[in-house]
Structures
1.
Amino acid sequence: MKIHIKNGQVIDPKNQLNKKSDLFIAAGKIVSIGQAPDSFTANQTIDATGLTICPGLVDLSARLREPGDEYKARLVSELQAAVAGGVTSLACPPDTDPVLDEPGLVEMLKHRTKQQGLAHVYPLGALTRQLAGNALSEMNELHAAGCVGFSQANVAIADTQVLWRAMEYAATFGFTLYLHAEEPFLAANGVAHDGEVATRLGLKGIPSAAEALALASILRIAQETGAKIHISRLSTAEGVDMIRSAKQRGLNISCDVSANHLHLTEHDIAYFNANCHLKPPLRTQRDKDALRAGLLDGTIDAICSDHTPVDDDAKQAPFAEAEIGATGLELLLPLTLKWATDAKVDLIHAIRLITSAPAQLLGVAGGSLSVHSDADLCLFDANEYWRVSPQSLKSQGRNTPFNGLELAGKVKYTLVHGQIVYQSAH
Amino acid sequence: MNNPQLDRDGNLKHLLSIEGLPKKILNQILDTAESFVGVAEREVKKVPLLRGKTVCNLFFENSTRTRTTFEIAAKRLSADVISLNVSTSSQSKGETILDTVDNLIAMHADMFVVRHAQSGAAHLIAKHVPPHIHVVNAGDGRHSHPTQGLLDVFTIRKYKPDLHNLRIAVVGDILHSRVARSEIHALTTLGVPEIRVIAPKTLLPTQVEKLGVHVFHDMAQGLKDVDVVMMLRLQNERMNGAMLPSSQEYFKTYGLTQEKLKLAKPDAIVMHPGPMNRGVEIDSTVADGEQSVILPQVTYGIAIRMAVMAILAGGSPAGASA
């Protein structure tokens, strides 16, 4: 299969490429950008006039809900959502049922997702067995089965001795740990940022200090153990400051922010909007501004979708009892573009944060348009608006705080291994 | 963002919280309640405003006093009343809140009076029900207890009619109190110039001052020259733990005694939403003393609840224009 994509604006942050150009694909690989290779005869030509061609998006955190939570979402539905959102590679956290702490489960997940031929799935293995924070998982076995790193999902390791050992062990083999920074005792039973809105609505709060305390422990132990740490979904201004100074000290640390937290604050909860029940909680305007500034100055390395599909019934409950999470794979691109527009950031810089930067953090292929690399790409119209609605989403989870909003950035084609795996209806 | 409590003409559709209600609506409820105070003193304690209507008391959290007063209020308006203690029935069988509500709608309930342990439960139900059904929040988690807030300001108005000249202290567990939140919103909306909260830091929510109150940690300072002292109930489970060391220590520092009450204005009134913990937040001599208006609060509670239900059902004798 040979594809000729013509007249698109090719943006490839990794290779600093940003020009109107044609792109040629053969046998699943990008074979040329610019001139057609000798004797290239396309089986298919895509007219990309007015479209941006970028590497397929790489998402650092997307829950697929299998195994175990198929009533919330299924591999098929979520991988279709991924490619509909232009996402061609994603890392999934280990909090499935059962949790990803057995090599067999990881192999099965890899096998089943590969069969779909949609987005590439890179599992993050459970750092501790059952995510219980007591005993280490078999990291080498899990790595061999396909895990690209280890995570505790939303569960904290309360015992700092276990955290220390986990980092030492992971550092021995050079594994990256993906940790969510939240001190579990301070955060216990909390459902919203501990501030004005939680006070007004009578919701139990999670103070910003919960993030700062957990970060302080993680950073300090990382410094002792030399472990490679990625902080998932930073939420506070103080957290951004702590990471910034840790990086200045030369610590081997990276972090991301969810697209939700770039745009929303505690005030979006309004009258108990359960779609805004997220982890970490939506925080203040000041925190949001700091997260945006952190992205600009490079303190924050990437944007993730934190895709967490939840079934409708699980959201039809009082705020605290409504299940945590929002669907996000199909919103990662438009929400990143919206941030770029708000912050007056170049498209190429914004796209880097959802392509080459996360690919590099995960240590996986993808995230670039280098010649001879796999043809995983996303073609989108940066100026076309579409309205977010349950009907407009492929994900089985229809819950998002952005419901009803019009967003710019419409994915037109997604290619994986040179195959068109998604094409928008219009 | 639409206010879920008001219809498009600005009339009361549901009573979910005091916050967000205009002064006009609060006064409408208070004035309507005034006309119902007399009903209880008649030989026939009934008016026909809700005849043929079915009011469903849906209590996901146990309550005796609030449920009873709502029941009496509905019956005095001639409604048919069903009271369900859901905490002991379907919920324990795994039925969701909205399933329970749907079943009662299918039985043609016209109004729901809802209590639930989680903040936002009444909003959830109000969002779910068809337009002809009204929801009254009878307490949701720590969030709101609007009829209690209203009956408290009604009581204050009875004893201290000039609300614009009052200094009011709310004492105790503000953090967990939906009553306190409702009282504060009602008092600020009605123009009370100075509202104080008095509590240890462990019992105050973050940024409580944003609700429009002055914060005190010391009873002697906080009670000085106030016109109204509103005591809050301290839940038993909060007494010995990380919130407070003991009920004895709490009583010594924040319990209302005759001695502490002397710091307030000589004609200050003492209120409590009940049920009281005598010897924990309030001394019996104060609770039963001359300045206590705790029992009148209960009486007025019925009139307030009648007023709310009558207005929601469209039968307010005082009228929306009052």
2.
Amino acid sequence: MSDTALPQTGPRRRAGLRLFGLPFPLAWALAFALGLAPLVRWIVLVATNDLGANPVEFLTRSSGTWALIVLLVALAVTPLARLTRQAGIVRLRRMAGLFAFFYVCLHLMTYVWWDQWFDPASIAADIWRRPFIAVGFAAFVLLIPLAVTSTKAWVRRLGGTNWQRLHRLVYVIAPLGLLHLWWIKAGKNDFLDASIFLSGLVVLLGYRILVRLRPR
Amino acid sequence: MSAFSGKDIPPSEITPETLYFDRRRFLLGAGAAIAAATAAPAQDAAGAPLPARRNGAFSTDEKPTPFQDVTGYNNFYEFGLGKEDPSIHAGDMKTRPWTVSVEGEVARPGTYDIETLLKLASMEERIYRLRCVEAWSMVIPWIGYPFSELMRKVEPTASARFVEFETVMDQTSMPGLRRTVIDWPYREGLRIDEAAHPLTLLTFGLYGKVLPNQNGAPLRVIVPWKYGFKSAKSLVRIRFTAEQPVSAWMKAAPNEYGFYANVNPDVPHPRWSQASERRIGEDGFFSPKRATLPFNGYGDQVAGLYSGMDLAKFY
């Protein structure tokens, strides 16, 4: 990630910046709508009473799945910008990261509310006793500083280099999130979904290693 | 999911259930195929009325879980890992002709036809709680007769100490068999005194009808004080043994599933607590999970089977 643009600290929009031929504000709005799509789907399913026999389980699993998907999308922004030669995509990276945090928060909420019924002692015991809960919770905690420091003001305050170091935490967070899913699926030897996420993560992290190793 | 979750409209109102379950064959379109499909209901009896006398003494007065949920939210991994997969795929399973092989330590081993088994004893309706190991529960009006009636018929020998149940492996209708979640066929087991307990029900129907395929047609066992996976479905083999059988789940994940698998709020699953459960169709967004009872609330009847045993060790 070190060789890519930092979030723009200058004027918010350069006039005429285009993404895949679209004016940047339109591309931004489309990306934002896409980011909200899972939430909109859940709201529609709740409204139409279409969540199935165990709505709580459905929302817990679906929010977890989308948290991981969006996290991988955030990690895909930089490689995508280089491969498509559309440097402007990088300006959507913060949105992707914040959407990932948003869906992680919703996923955590399903657990705190519907599984644990807001019982702090029970939650603490669960984190202590169950490794898959612990790694999922760790991923959430590590995401907090990234979400907090996602603003331009924080980039300035930390300085670009420190900000970037901090945000490399995502290379720890994403594997923790995947491990969380992997351990859930281990009980039934059902690694199909988890393997797809693993492939995605290997490609996205492998890309960065290759970029690092390549002589310039 | 959406096509299978119309809460207010039972599928039977939309398409005749028997035709629905036979839709693939129906859609072949050839005249002979249509004749076969329309003749099928008489053979594959799923959904046909199954008269039974309510056994109030063995029934809970809790509210039964809606038929839609009982038949649409199932774990039957031979048909797929998703909860909706069984209701989608199980219709392709043929339940006629069907025989059950009774083997092992019995005086009268043999192959018993489903029609014979249906007439072996008088049918009772019993409303039981079902507690899944995944911390959800239902209340289901089953129809069947005590498994002990079959034991009387086949006469286990003095050395029969356990019973092993084996589920059908039907490659044509069971896409889940291609996944190696467990070492197929599905096997479960009970101690002989558990099998002989009056609560243990050889089950042929639910909600007044012949069992839908996804619920284990044409016959299954129901052991209401144990986690649901102990109640093997679509039985083709019942083996009486001297040695404790190794169940499919013990083999797949010995640290997670033991032989006894009695419902026990004090022994957590390695990945979640068993102290509470969510009642399907009742406990939703605005009600906490309800407390799980030892032996699923059947302690008065069955706790004596385990006196002196450390149930944390024999989980």
3.
Amino acid sequence: MDSPTNKRDRLLRRTARVTAGAALLTSFVVASAPETGGTIAYWVVLPFYLAAGLLIARLESGRPLVILISASLAELAIAFCLVIIPATPDASATLAVTTLLVASASGLAMTLLVSPAGYVTYWLLAGITATVAGVVLHESPTWLPPALLTLLGWAAVNVIGYLLVSSIPTVLRQVSDIGAAQRAERHASELEAQRRHSARLLHDTVLATLTLLAHSGIGVSGEALRSQARNDAHLLRQLRLGEPLLALPDAGYTPELVEESTLGTTLERVRERFERLSLDVQWHGATRIALPQPALDAFLYAISECLENVRRHAGVGSAHVTITDDTTTVRAMITDAGRGFDPDLVDAERLGLQESVIARMQEIGGSARVFSAPGAGTTVLLEAPR
Amino acid sequence: MSGALGAGRQLGRRHAGLGARRIWWGMLILVGIQMAYDLGQTIGGDAQQVAPELVLTAWGVLLVADLAVIVVVRVLNDHLPNWMFGLFVAALVIVILLDLTVTWMRPEAGSPVTVGRSAVLSLLLALTTRPEREVLIAGLGLAALCAAGMALDGAFVPPTLQHSIFTICHVSLTIVVATIAIAGFRAMVRREIEEELSRAALLAPQLTVGIYQSERLARLDLAAESLLAAVAEGRVQLPLNEEIARRAGSIASELRHHLLESRSRTWLDLAIEESELLGAAVRVSDDSASAGLLGPDQRSALLSVLWLLAEQRRPRRDALTPTLVTVSQPVLGPSTRPDMIALPVSVQFGSDQRARLEPGVWERFGRIGEYREVREQGTLRVDILALVPNAGHRSLEPR
């Protein structure tokens, strides 16, 4: 890679080139205006302008010190010729010379601003230029004396050069930080890709299943296809969640969805719990509830609360839970043949339904309805959107 | 594949403003110097003020506008919103018009603008936070406004001709120089970032996938998972309807394609893909994906060569033929090194690169392997024989 010094020098030279070049151009345009334009002095300095311009144009590719010295000499020659040749230098000459000394010479010297010695040289040159300005320019084009104006110009160029040079190490450091972050990200993505890739080679069934599905699953028994899809979804889910693939049941793993097996256990546990409390719970319908985890939790909790109400208030030893689902809704019906109550008279609040059941179901976008009459048992219908 | 060029390049663009804060401070100081100077001329100028209230208003508007921009740029962390930039330019136009009105009111023709000059250069405060083209256009527009106003006042005839020319050159060229300088600085920063990002690819294993490829695989997996889960849970009816079947088919073919293709890529493909500069200047032909066999130092040297070559080119991109890097299948190494195989790498230079090469380029070629120059029909090619460890070789001798 290029050294930081090279980068700094290149940037500085480019800036110096445009600064010095623009000032030279300004000076030339002003000198070309009457009355200087067309005089002998003008024709004398013309080659020097040309030479200085060509030298400055090569500032980036040539040897900067040689160019700095020769271009400065050319500009000095312009300054003296414009002021000394005419008997009384007019306003254009004064202005053209001032521009050269204030901005073009300082722009050239900007390339020096890379070391303490360079700064010393720079300000030495500034002093010399200011002296020249003070001597040759008898009147100032502005309200500031020529020498002071020159020093001001050199100071401004110094500021630019300093800030350009000093910003480079900071920038390079930040760039290298970005690079480090990028390397880390690439490393991580490489690992991730490798993990996915090797997993895919081990269990190359996903492609086969997708291909079957692409043919609409015709010719394969629906149950077999579902079971295969379940296995593959399981594999991909574990990959996605970053679970170690070793935990996968190997060849011939059991095709169970995580939710389903958990739910099976959960329903069994609910049954056991109420059995211990002498309430016989009978499950009917679907053995799985296709709900996302948080909704599933709320749903199961609401069922338990309803069963708790049956146990406390119904005065019977058994309850039935029927779970059904369609494309939009999952329903659970909790039924008992107990003593029942009049929903209009008995406050839902008192039964603990409000907080524990209705609010919970509403949280997951579902609903709970109670149907009961004295002596006719109670049915609670829970509905949750899929 | 154009999307694949995203990650690195976007990162490069996002950080293009890096390091500009110091330059902004420089611009602040420059504008300060210019304003102090112009204020000095307004106060100490020889001409009697004909309408001090207008001059005062102009300075007031300029100060408020500048302060507002300074505060916004600092508060928003080197950002200047569009509307704020628009307001700023509008305020500068008002300042210039006020200043021109004052010069018109003066009895003598061609009086100098003062606060107007500061107003144009105040644009430099927005230089680091806006695209350089905007600042350039606004600056030249304001300078033209000044020039037009001065022309109306008869400033472009002797004896005020020189000063008028000087004033216009001064303000417009300062803006031009500043925009060229910041453009150079930004180009340097962007190039640095791109090179740094492309170097991140050096650490890749023999065959690799890009960041983007990895993301794409993850997305495909997710799509497959949700489809399979829908089938497993019976949320979709079997046999599948046509649309879902088609979706399954497209996921399958994409996955298959991905598994076949993704790991035939090497660090060299990634490094070039993730840099806009390198992407435009270099083509790689490496069907056997052999570039992955190169060792860390060889990779680094080859990438440096490509960057140095890209650096030497002129920015006219359309006119150039790219550098062509060809990596062939490894061949038998020298008999003295049975543990190594030789990888032929050739670098065919673009037609515009015959002239001269930095010595650093040759030094880096040497770090890759033994090289020789081949000149054919006015083009230069460098053939390198890079020695890489022979993975199949089992040395029995203890090292």
